[in-house]
Amino acid sequence: MTASLTEVPTAQDIKAAAQRIAPYINRTPSFSSLRFNELACGEYLLKGEHLQLTGAFKARGAMNAILVHQSKALSSGVITHSSGNHGAALAWAASQVGAKAYIIMPSNAPKSKIASVRHYGGVITFCEPTLEARETTATRIQKETSAYLIHPYDDYDIIAGQATATYELLKDNPEIEHLFVPVGGGGLLSGAALANYYFGNAKLYGCEPELARDAYDGFVSGKRVLVKNSETIADGLKTSLGKKNFPIIKSHVNQIILLTEKEIETGWHICLETTKQFIEPSAATGVAAALKMKTKGVCGILLCGGNMDVRKFTLR
Amino acid sequence: MTASLTEVPTAQDIKAAAQRIAPYINRTPSFSSLRFNELACGEYLLKGEHLQLTGAFKARGAMNAILVHQSKALSSGVITHSSGNHGAALAWAASQVGAKAYIIMPSNAPKSKIASVRHYGGVITFCEPTLEARETTATRIQKETSAYLIHPYDDYDIIAGQATATYELLKDNPEIEHLFVPVGGGGLLSGAALANYYFGNAKLYGCEPELARDAYDGFVSGKRVLVKNSETIADGLKTSLGKKNFPIIKSHVNQIILLTEKEIETGWHICLETTKQFIEPSAATGVAAALKMKTKGVCGILLCGGNMDVRKFTLR
Questions:
Q1: At the N or C end, where does chain A have fewer CB atoms within 10 A?
Q2: A268 vs B277, B279, B315: nearest CB
């Protein structure tokens, strides 16, 4: 029986998570492009978590949490609230062990993300698109079902799972000097911060939309702040940093880089043009930050996901 | 000194081309997706020539032709006419050996393709967007410069080079039973036909837009026909089959599958959604044909390229 983490994950916890989830997840490839290197003035490796199962890194944390809480998941299911990628990932991870997953989603979630949760057998309840409504609805459904709540990011087992993306990248490429990671709730970034602290030596940059700048403001002021109803195109990054994520990020991240909507869109265009990898806008913040910073040297970017409504793009 | 091919390439010619170009080109990966397999009812390998250098398979044929004609290329340059991908590929291939490349492009070629030719140092002359205007302009510039003409597809050295894409795919995956390949001028498809005849055993399908259906009509009637001023969104497939390509295709292709514009667009959407690979509309014909045929078994699709104007896609 594996115990749930109640403290900041150690190096051993991250290694254990990597081993635990390895039979279920994709060891994702990294991409490079000579043209992108020219534009961003460095040697870039773009870690393709858009090719992770369920189309985002979220499969890592969800699978880790499900395996840690497997007996609870099997007896009364799991529940979460999510703008989409974590919901799909949890539904998928639960299905891997035969457990039920209840997913609370904002009513304005992208159609493709709703379809994806359904595809993996998740039971969806819609709510208003605010963090408060999500949490209230989750609590209500949780009481009705006794399902076990797995938070999208504010959870040490989730953080240990997300850390495995950076752990893989740094294990394969220990020469990485600069690392660009998108930040929303902070699951991926706090995981990256720990993996880089234990196993790497890169300067670590959190990449955040200006329209959802709680990580930047919290990082500068030293106090966690909340963002409300952000309208950024990077729909996966609208959430505020979690309580468990913030101190890890404060301690082990070098800088938060703010990106305008225009910079995010340009990063997305340049990623399509140079790497031919189809990523979601949230992932484009990492690309945009690299293009903005031009840090030189060997650099990594975590392409966090590739789920978006593609039908709005027409060829005519 | 390597002699230029004057006959249909043999198995040995294709192997020699593969060996000749190997130091210059990418051995491209194949992609798979459980979701795509469900939708297309088979086990699919999508060979990623959009990740080839210059963003398309055309780098193979161009590099082969340049290496075969290296001394002529170095003395007075090379010339070609192209809707884009062959032009960029020839400019790139010429630059690899330090030769000059003159590229005739239709005035309505996508901006990204024009930029790409320029990026590799090609000297562009624009002409009216008809096959006739392209050939007349090419002849004129050729006379002025004495550059050596390398046709985009109607050339055995080009065919042998393009054949290496299918040769690689079949060498790595000899179990492939069905193979879907886009057809425009027929360079890729005639190469695939020969590679599959010598090294494989797949049923081979040429995938063609209904709006540029010369291959279909020629295949059915047994006589090569020409298509004029096609308006298909698959801009790389507007050309008619070449004289050297047609008989090879007639002999060694099982069927030409026609795709409507809508089917091509849906194929493009499904490729983005399921594989996260950003391909150009021409490549989507192969995807669309697979989704239409649902052949079952182990199947291959040649994703022929990934070059298109991405700036028209906005995230808001």
A1: N
A2: B315
Q: Any idea what the CATH number is for the domain that residue B70 is in?
A: 3.40.50.1100
What 8-state DSSP symbol labels residue B30? E
Contact list in A for residue B266 (CB cut-off 8 A) is none
Domain that holds residue B302: 11-57+155-312
Amino acid B292: pLDDT = 98
Q: How many CB atoms lie within 10 A of CB A197?
A: 16
Q: Which of A293, A284, A113, A34 is nearest to B314 (CA)?
A: A284
Look up the pTM and report it. 0.95
Q: Is A194 a domain residue? A: yes
Phi-psi region of A26 (alpha: psi -120 to 50; beta: other; left: phi over 0): beta
Residue B152 predicted with pLDDT over 80: yes
* Predicted pLDDT at A277: 98
> For position B112, what pLDDT does the model report?
79
Residues 6+ apart with CB under 8 A from B223: none
Q: Per the domain annotation, does B307 fall within a domain? A: yes
3-state SS of A64-77 is: HHHHHCHHHHHHHC
Average pLDDT over residues A12-31: 98
Please identify, among A149, A168, A191, the residue that sits at the C-terminal boundary of a domain: A149
In B, which residues are within 8 Å of A273 by CB distance? 112, 310
pLDDT tens digits for range B244-292: 999 999 999 999 999 999 999 999 999 999 999 999 999 999 999 999 9
> Cβ(B139)–Cβ(B128) under 8 Å?
no
- Counting one residue from A and one from B, how many pairs have CB atoms under 8 Å apart? 58
Q: Which residue of A has its CA nearest to B262?
A: A315
